[in-house]
Amino acid sequence: MSKGRVLLAYSGGLDTSCILVWLIEQGYEVLAYMANIGQEEDFEAAKVKALSIGAKKVFIEDLRRAFVEELIYPAIQANAVYENVYLLGTSLARPVIARSQIEIAIREGCDVVSHGCTGKGNDQVRFELAYYALKPNIKVIAPWRMPEFYERFPGRQSLIAYANEKGIPVVHTAAKPWSTDENLYHISYEAGMLEDPAATPSQDMWKLTVAPENAPDTPERIIIAFEKGKPVRIENKNDGTVVTDPLDLFIYLNTLGRRNGIGRVDIVESRFIGLKSRGCYETPGGTILRAAHIDLEGLTLDGQVRHLKDVNISIPYGRLLYNGLYFSPEREFLLHSLEFTQRNVNGEVQLKLYKGSITIEGRKAFGDGAKLYNMEESSMDVQGGLTPTDAGGFIRTHAIRLRKWTPSN
Amino acid sequence: MSKGRVLLAYSGGLDTSCILVWLIEQGYEVLAYMANIGQEEDFEAAKVKALSIGAKKVFIEDLRRAFVEELIYPAIQANAVYENVYLLGTSLARPVIARSQIEIAIREGCDVVSHGCTGKGNDQVRFELAYYALKPNIKVIAPWRMPEFYERFPGRQSLIAYANEKGIPVVHTAAKPWSTDENLYHISYEAGMLEDPAATPSQDMWKLTVAPENAPDTPERIIIAFEKGKPVRIENKNDGTVVTDPLDLFIYLNTLGRRNGIGRVDIVESRFIGLKSRGCYETPGGTILRAAHIDLEGLTLDGQVRHLKDVNISIPYGRLLYNGLYFSPEREFLLHSLEFTQRNVNGEVQLKLYKGSITIEGRKAFGDGAKLYNMEESSMDVQGGLTPTDAGGFIRTHAIRLRKWTPSN
Amino acid sequence: MSKGRVLLAYSGGLDTSCILVWLIEQGYEVLAYMANIGQEEDFEAAKVKALSIGAKKVFIEDLRRAFVEELIYPAIQANAVYENVYLLGTSLARPVIARSQIEIAIREGCDVVSHGCTGKGNDQVRFELAYYALKPNIKVIAPWRMPEFYERFPGRQSLIAYANEKGIPVVHTAAKPWSTDENLYHISYEAGMLEDPAATPSQDMWKLTVAPENAPDTPERIIIAFEKGKPVRIENKNDGTVVTDPLDLFIYLNTLGRRNGIGRVDIVESRFIGLKSRGCYETPGGTILRAAHIDLEGLTLDGQVRHLKDVNISIPYGRLLYNGLYFSPEREFLLHSLEFTQRNVNGEVQLKLYKGSITIEGRKAFGDGAKLYNMEESSMDVQGGLTPTDAGGFIRTHAIRLRKWTPSN
Amino acid sequence: MSKGRVLLAYSGGLDTSCILVWLIEQGYEVLAYMANIGQEEDFEAAKVKALSIGAKKVFIEDLRRAFVEELIYPAIQANAVYENVYLLGTSLARPVIARSQIEIAIREGCDVVSHGCTGKGNDQVRFELAYYALKPNIKVIAPWRMPEFYERFPGRQSLIAYANEKGIPVVHTAAKPWSTDENLYHISYEAGMLEDPAATPSQDMWKLTVAPENAPDTPERIIIAFEKGKPVRIENKNDGTVVTDPLDLFIYLNTLGRRNGIGRVDIVESRFIGLKSRGCYETPGGTILRAAHIDLEGLTLDGQVRHLKDVNISIPYGRLLYNGLYFSPEREFLLHSLEFTQRNVNGEVQLKLYKGSITIEGRKAFGDGAKLYNMEESSMDVQGGLTPTDAGGFIRTHAIRLRKWTPSN
Fold first, then answer.
1. Do C308 and A316 touch (CB under 8 A)?
2. Residue A378 — pLDDT band, cuts 50, 70, 90?
3. Strand, coil or helix: C217
4. pLDDT-derived band of residue D383, with 50, 70 and 90 as boundaries?
5. What is the value of ipTM here, to two decimals?
6. Residue B83: which of A198, A306, A399 has the nearest Cβ?
7. What string of H, E and C letters represents the secondary structure of B171-216?
8. In 10 A of CB A173, how many CB atoms?
9. What is the mean pLDDT of residues D71-81?
10. In degrees to the nearest 10, what's the CA dihedral of B309, B313, B316, B319?
11. Which positions ≥6 away from A407 have C-beta within 8 Å?
């Protein structure tokens, strides 16, 4: 008799294939779940494989549009970043993947979900916090945290041996000396040779973007238009290409970023569980979009609101995404606040892309967002309605406090 | 009889030359003060000019070392930035200039200081708040805020006419359609044709850096070593150059940044007085240094301390610099807190500079800063003393709260 | 010929009566405006006086309901406080007063408004920032900042002399050795004998509340019910009184607070213009309401949201109120964020009022707000679905980072 | 053969006595550790009991002075509070208890420590994070989180049965329907009948303070003097008592608070592990001290520094204490920053204590702290060196931004 139905987040790789078979061995009925979030993957082959090794059903969900519209664009509105540098590509994908997995689990009567994440990383946290928030009574099997699993499979060789024993097809490619996670927003590299933080990654590691040195010698100029802080139109000034569909627009931005060598970073970051780890990331389209959005906020957001947003939304929003707290009361709260700030972030930004660099070349605001900048008033040449003597009073009033200051040493 | 002695911040240009003569006309004895903060300037010619038009004395102060050591390096430690993009080059120079001006004013018995800033910008605030904080009873003459001055000289032509009348030498160069402010850290461009935020600056505007397109085709690789968050050594891997003196090191970093097209930005920013204005900036060495410092903090700063520092020091420190509040109780407080965070930021960072882009290629920590990263422990392949089952408890405990969440819609 | 029509914020007292006459003397047509925000005042007598000394019209506006519903209750939702102690009574009244004044100015064709605030305080800032925000082209006459006024009237005696000369009725009461500002929310005392921060105010100063020593010997027990963070019902358990109308409810809370000696504070605060000043305040109803609201948030707000709200809304909201920035983009933003946090702050709080102290004696949540607290789960006696071993994993995971800590000394 | 030596945090009560015997039963050699942090306790009787039931040694450490000087006074400097109300009495005691336990464990060669905390509360976290931070390789036995223990002892009756079986003396007092934790700073009540958040605690629960109704009818007036934000002298104006020793001073403040009914609170709080729980607390001396310290900061701290401190130190410091993160890099950082803010917090505060209420009646600053307040300058009657017209410029400059504001609805 079955112990129950498990919906396993399945990748088609060695780990989750072994987990699939192992779960069956433990007495579970296993259904496989694959999310298309824009990674390069042969979904059909994986499906065939899953079925061949015992999965009762396989679900392949195209989540790319939800990923772009619900996760990526709000992160752009927030200028979200983790520890100043990381654009959160993996973190952003997890909520849509987990949500869809839970929806299917409910629909298919699975009271258990499972995944192949290790017990040291952030992803286990991100998946499981989402599972529990969306379906509080869900059961989770995380084999890599179960002694009966990780002690049985202490290394890759033992997994291969198990696969051979169980008739799981093993692709005999040379394993890369790092692990990756790819989606429409980014690809990450970690572990293996990257664990030495001083080791420069080999050039053949980078997959999504060309090296700046190999990018075209001619800059590419584009215009990105935003409505309420979300991109609604991209125009390539070099060749006239125009894209407006939210998903297509982002894919096209990726194309531009990839061929111009944009979006590589290499950092040591603080994982939620308290370890430091080294990661390399390529986020081509997201890097461009974030630069453009920050620029447009300069023109269209009131300075005080911008400051409050930077401190009170951008930073905590980035952290909660990183820590897997997307499905939470605080995310709802922050997103609600964020949206309000974006209602006048309307306009367009001109950018130049060239060999790894992004240069802002001008911007324009539309609607109420245009009211904050007054060319004549800001002019150093024209008086524009301001009485210069007022500034003297402003300064002397601020100085009242400073005149009382006694330096401490 | 003289109304008193004025120490005028003098640049040698049309404005401050006219102010100098005008102040004499008002009955003041005028001494001229020039700060060498690394700008390109013919100080000797300016001195001759000042004396020739009536200055009693001229002081030329080389403040470059104090600028680098006391202002620039702490700003690097703080990762200070204003509104996400601006590296604060002008803001950083003002405190050293104002402090030296006040010191000379005191020494020379001037009870008045004067400057040529306009009544709409940030610099009047920065200079005067510093004056008042350092010498509470100082008197300030800001002619561009005085109706008797600005109504008499409503435009450049009236200044030229006055200069001609008073025998002030006028250099007949075509005025640039923008104004600039240069120092060792950066150059700024604003006003004139830049006042249209959509107008792309002409290529001949940029002065400090080559365009990325004109930078060398071969990347330049360097290593920057830090002690307590301040750079102490730079090594050029391409040619073996090594520089260690704080001032020379920064000048050399500028050389590297300039020739590799690094550090141009173009923004619309929120001035302290509440206006939006558009500025373009080149900060070659500072841009490199900031990227390297942020990277090293990733390896050497505890994650929680880093977060507290980002929110509670970096952001307010950048704002107070921008707003001219360097000589203030809050700056002392923030700097004191900042220094504590930096005591283990020891190590070196490898960077690649190439056509406008900076790529981090690895880093290494020294001393206590090295304790936070443990290669084996972070490894996804090795267990490293951690019990994977603990992470399950961590996750489920965090989920307690999330399981109670009711989405609002 | 008239210089224009001025709408003067008029109190009936010596200062604004002299200002009224002085404005007429300067050639203005003057209309008088009085706001009823709950202060003790003979509005009719003041009206007669204003008309008798030359006002063309007098407007008396009852703003008490708007004050309570639009300003006081959101401040309660925000738990707004300035510098830990001051409940912002004066700050809260200014926006409704200024808004109504501007509305009447527009309706009556006045292009100038005027007030009797001094040039050192916060109120000039609060009134005028509101004026300018609501009607950017308004002209403001602030006589106490105009040399032609303040030099002519250097002290109270010169005002009295002017009043006698101009036939302005002067009430010959002994001037109190402090000045006050009263409204429905509070009364403030400052200046005069209070300027020595060590001087204990005399007992006869306090006007709104009885001294705790003189309050009843029997505690009064009440229940306050909240919906979305705003009070909707108050019940007096001692005598069965029930009040539900928002304005009546607040007036009744004041009655309770006043007779039980609640809400006196005595502080030194930092004015917006940078001076420190000493103020004493009585805020009877507001003090009770704030305590009750904070308590109910403990039960009904998610812990993380509560923390974000405390830091990112409560504190900046209190500061912007104090600084007169109610009519601003940042207030709109903060209020929008605030409202979202309050949607489940539904329930009731039991309180005991006794001789100056407020004691919370229990609380209850209604609706979704009740989901966060689970009696059984929190119980130390019952296991309630939690696996105790999870907490061990939680702790050991948090300890990963701490185990790397090297104390600095 | 012994499994090792355990140092058990022992209270003398039923739980830890059973744990002591149970640990011996498991094969450990057990040493008992008791911390005197000011709680009412018969330490000698407990020592005799521990030895009688098998403890090899018993250590009773008087930590009261370290508790007051190292934990309580810095918390006063920080104005530390959790969720607006809770003064952190239990949190503050844990670090000194844990540190001493670890010191003894090291000295006595114990490689294991143990405690009797439950698996749902905060104290397990606080103790163990301290243990791991101070001695990373320590082993911790938390019986109430071990199934072999908590399943064997599902309730109080099973513990009593075990005690009887093992000859552990059981005091047959009626168990109170709540649990308490007491120390020099406070006493806490939770669980049992308090688990219903609407239930008013019975009057006989409160132990440390008299009810306000039973406090003396005559107010007690005191003066507290501070140096660098720490109390150095207390003077009772009623009877002339003066206390200056740090520990004695705090004990005397407790006496004053206790007899005047000061310091009771009743809240629902957010535990670190994500549960809400209800707690009642009495913190007599701490409540007085915090009010006095906040008041003195009003006079002696620059307004901007005070604001930065409130947001960036007080709030995170309170949270880290609550969450058991005292021995951490972030606490070192915050404490270092805190101390700098306190260097001019010198002066004295006059207070009135009466039936549960604290009234500030004046204050005075000493040394540099006195420079910020200038009686003449703040005066509304005197001009004091300020030019009133400056305030107009200040206001109109602030209004530049507001005049561009378009309300959103």
1. yes
2. low
3. coil
4. low
5. 0.96
6. A306
7. CCCCCCCCEEEECCCCEEEECHHHHCCCCCCCCCCCCCCCCHHHCC
8. 6
9. 98
10. -100
11. B327, B332
In chain D, residues with a C-beta closer than 8 Å to the C-beta of A396 are: 387, 390, 393-394
Tokens of D248: 């004695």
Burial D222-237 (b: 16+ CB within 10 A, else e): bbbbbeebbbeebbbe
Q: Does A157 touch chain D (CB under 8 A)?
A: no
Q: What does the alpha-carbon distance between residue C216 and residue C223 come to, in Å, rounded to a whole number?
A: 19
* pLDDT band for position A385 (cuts 50, 70, 90): low
**Does residue D173 surpass a pLDDT of 90?**
no
Q: Which strands make up the sheet holding C220-227, listed edge to edge? A: C242-243, C230-236, C220-227, C347-354, C357-365
Which of B191, B303, B381 shows the shortest C-beta gap to A381? B191
Across the interface, of C306, C357, C381, the residue whose CB is closest to D355 is C357
Q: How many CB atoms lie within 10 A of CB D3?
A: 11
Q: What is the pLDDT of residue A264?
A: 98
Residues of chain C with pLDDT under 70: 1, 173, 378-386, 409
pLDDT in tens, A90-101: 999 999 999 999
Instruction: Please state, in angstroms and rounded to a whole number, the distance separating the CA atoms of residues C155 and D384.
Output: 14
pLDDT at position C291 is 98
Q: What average pLDDT does the segment A106-131 reach?
A: 96
- Number of residue pairs across A and C with CB atoms under 8 Å? 71
Q: Out of C145, C179, C233, C306, which one is annotated catalytic?
A: C179
Of A377, A303, A298, A307, the C-alpha closest to A345 is: A298
Q: What is the mean pLDDT of residues A67-87?
A: 98
Instruction: Please give the Cα distance from A377 to A387 (Å, whole number).
Output: 11
Give the ranges where B39-122 is alpha helix by DSSP (H).
Answer: 43-52, 64-66, 73-78, 89-107
Of the candidates B146, B127, B148, B149, the one whose C-alpha atom is nearest the C-alpha of residue B138 is: B127
Q: Please report which residue ranges of D310-387 form alpha helices under DSSP H.
A: 315-322, 329-341, 375-378
Q: C240's torsion region: left (phi>0), alpha (psi -120 to 50) or beta?
A: left
Predicted confidence at residue D327, as pLDDT, reads: 97
Query: Does the distance separating the beta carbons of B308 and D330 come in below 8 Å?
Result: yes
How many whole angstroms separate alpha carbon D111 and alpha carbon C393? 20
Q: Please answer yes or no on whether B397 and D305 come within 8 Å at the CB atom.
A: no
Strand (E) or helix (H) holding C380: none
pLDDT in tens, B48-101: 999 999 999 999 999 999 999 999 999 999 999 999 999 999 999 999 999 999
pLDDT above 70: residue A335: yes
Sign of CA dihedral B187, B188, B194, B198: positive
% of chain D residues with pLDDT over 70: 97
Q: Order across the sheet with A28-36: list the strands.
A: A58-62, A28-36, A4-9, A112-114, A139-141
d(CA B206, CA B284): 12
A401 to D302: CB separation less than 8 angstroms, yes or no: yes
H/E stretch holding D144: none
pLDDT at res. D152: 95
Contact D274, A372 (CB under 8 A): no
pLDDT of D374 strictly over 70? yes
Residues D391, C120: C-beta atoms closer than 8 Å: yes
How buried is C203 (Cβ within 10 angstroms: 0-12 exposed, 13-18 middle, 19+ buried)? Answer: exposed
Look at C68-72, D249-253, D381-385 and tell me which has the smallest mean pLDDT: D381-385
Q: Tell me: the pLDDT tens digits for D29-46?
A: 999 999 999 999 999 999
**Closest alpha carbon to B79 in B345, B264, B365:** B345
